[in-house]
Design brief:
By secondary structure, the chain is an all-beta fold. The protein has 1 helix and 21 strands. The chain has a single domain, classed as Jelly Rolls, CATH 2.60.120. Strands 3, 4, 6, 7, 8, 9, 10, 12, 17, 18, 19 and 21 form a 12-stranded mixed β-sheet that branches. A 9-stranded mixed β-sheet has the order 1-2-16-15-14-13-20-11-5. The longest helix has 4 residues. It is globular, with a radius of gyration of 17 Å. The two termini are 26 Å apart.
Length: 282
């Protein structure tokens, strides 16, 4: 097993994020060969299995609408239209579209916020150059520092860019480790059929440890070693966000293939669980 540097990933998550190189590492082996997570007892506290067709469950999801990708220089306009987000065949479909008025897609965040837990999202990634699907956690509100981002943190459970099919990566951002200073922490893993099959993308978020998983296999871990909030702001409520961007500072680096639309990012289930003992897995 070897590792290879990924040198050209650039990201701006929102209007507060500066463009910079993302220093993450690619594992040469698939998640099934990675270390299994340590045992914790989990109790589900929230879930959406997409049983009701039509608009997404408003008790679980809130649409975030608007253009420009929140500072990411994305091309789409996020809408609340069922053309861009809907539940069909027990799946949440986030669909990026292109018509005479431009690109449209959807971005949804959870109505509830959580501090710590296990977040499991089964999804199938879209296919096509120029797409940028993401599943991530971000602080519900400003608790630390002078800026909402990066001071209050972000945990990217899964990101992918269409010009690198089946490569997914997880990243942690904070005031000390972020794209401003090229020091955000993360890792990428190759999932051979991520665009054709559903896989479970997860994060285990505990007071002293955060683990990133694909199909229950850990591929990246960060530990808290007494750092203050500038390194570890992950002790306040975060919301869950899912979105499908078009173009942008990361997803659009190699242009957009106009033949791919409409493009679907599908979620089969979302489960949030609380640890029965927050000291587990330490």
């Amino acid at each position: 097993m070897g590792i290879f540097s990924i040198s050209n990933f650039r990201v701006r998550r929102n209007a507060f994020i500066a463009l910079a190189t993302l220093p993450i590492w690619l594992s040469a082996c698939t998640p099934s060969a990675q270390q299994k997570t340590r045992a914790c007892e989990w109790a589900p506290v929230a879930s959406d299995n997409f049983k009701t067709s039509g608009s997404p469950n408003s008790h679980f999801w809130i649409h975030e609408t608007g253009g420009d990708g929140w500072g990411n220089h994305e091309l789409q306009n996020y809408t609340a239209s069922v053309e861009n987000s809907r539940v069909v065949d027990q799946k949440l479909v986030i669909e990026a579209r292109h018509d005479r008025s431009g690109y449209s897609s959807a971005r949804l965040r959870s109505a509830q916020a959580w501090t710590y837990g296990r977040f499991d999202i089964r999804s199938k990634l879209p296919h096509g150059r120029g797409l940028w699907p993401a599943i991530w956690l971000i602080a519900e509100k400003k608790n630390y520092g002078d800026s909402y981002w990066p001071d209050n943190g972000e945990l990217d459970i899964m990101e992918n860019v269409g010009f690198s099919p089946n490569l997914v990566f997880g990243t942690a951002h904070s005031k000390k480790h972020n794209v401003f200073n090229h020091s955000e922490r993360g890792k990428a893993v190759f999932v051979p059929d991520a665009e054709n099959e559903f896989h479970k993308y997860s994060i285990i978020w505990l007071p002293k440890k955060i683990e990133y998983l694909v199909d229950d296999s850990v591929y990246f871990r960060i530990n808290r070693n007494g750092e203050d909030w500038q390194t570890w702001p992950y002790d306040k409520p975060f919301v869950l966000v899912v979105n499908l961007a078009v173009g942008g500072d990361l997803g659009g680096q190699k242009g957009v293939d106009e033949s791919i639309f409409p493009a679907r990012f599908e979620l089969e289930s979302v489960t949030v669980s609380a640890a029965k003992n927050l000291a587990c897995g330490q």
